[in-house]
Amino acid sequence: MWDIMKKKYVIAIDGPGASGKSTTAKALARKLKYIYIDTGAMYRACALCSLENSINLKDIPKLITMLENIDIKILYSEKGNKIFLNGNDVSQRIREADITKLSSEIAKIDIVRKKMVLLQREIGKNGGVIMDGRDIGTVVFPNADFKFFMIANEKTRALRRWKEAAKKGENLSLKDIEKELIWRDANDTSRKISPLKQAEDAIPVDTSNMTIDDQVEFLFKIIMRGKSA
Ligand code: CDP
Asked: Which of the listed residues 22, 133, 221, 226 has the most CB atoms within 10 Å of its CB?
């Protein structure tokens, strides 16, 4: 165990929304004493920034200026990361429905991805990191030590999001949540740049019938075995 902590692996977890990536990554990071980076939160912060500055996503010069000045900071903590946009804690705001949709739109734009990938590589360059997203194993860290691709069926994923929303006191319909997830899967999978897809050497994990503990244990065991090559 101590050996794995010292080895400072880069662990990539990709997959669609509500497939179990972030819950698993968070718990695993706690166990391994690694840093957890939710790259989706970075695209969400970009989306919020564009909204706050009324930037039309087709207005590339304005987007360039926005990206030159954007300040995204992640405060790591075992209790959960906090994300700051230009000095403000936006951890809650970026989870709202309008930002979820806009994040998938802004994530299609080349210059946005270039900037986020640079930041992500910088954060992960010394290893000891678990990063989740859509393109971590394919683009951000193609040489990651471990790559996982998490999936789950649509009904299960929608139910997970519905339960999360209910916990926060939000009254959303299961059907609307499912529709949003399906729309975002299609949007993320069909984009030209860095689409959501499984890296050839990623280990697929279908979490439809797994508990959170099962998921964490499954990944943990593979990582503890170490790298064969
Ligand atoms: O929490 P959930 O899995 O639903 O979404 P997220 O990970 O917060 O990501 C929000 C959106 O950001 C996704 O729908 C993608 O369009 C985009 N994203 C991306 O393009 N690349 C990443 N590495 C992470 C997120």
From this structure: 133
Mean per-residue pLDDT of the chain: 95
pTM: 0.96
User: What dihedral angle (degrees, nearest 10) is formed by the CA atoms of 42, 174, 21, 108?
Assistant: -40
Q: Is the Cβ–Cβ distance between 21 and 211 less than 8 Å?
A: no
Q: How many domains does the chain have?
A: 1
Lowest mean pLDDT among 117-121, 149-153, 162-166: 162-166
Residues with CB under 6 A from ligand 1: 17-18, 39-41, 43-44, 103-104, 107, 133-135, 184, 188
Whole-angstrom distance, CA of residue 17 vs CA of residue 220: 21
Q: Whose CA is nearest to atom 8 of ligand 1?
A: 40
Sign of the torsion formed by the C-alpha atoms of 81, 87, 91 and 94 = negative
Per the structure, the complete domain to which residue 153 belongs is given by: 10-225
Give the Cα separation of 105 and 117 in Å (integer). 16
- pLDDT value at position 3? 75
Classify residue 3: in a domain, yes or no: no
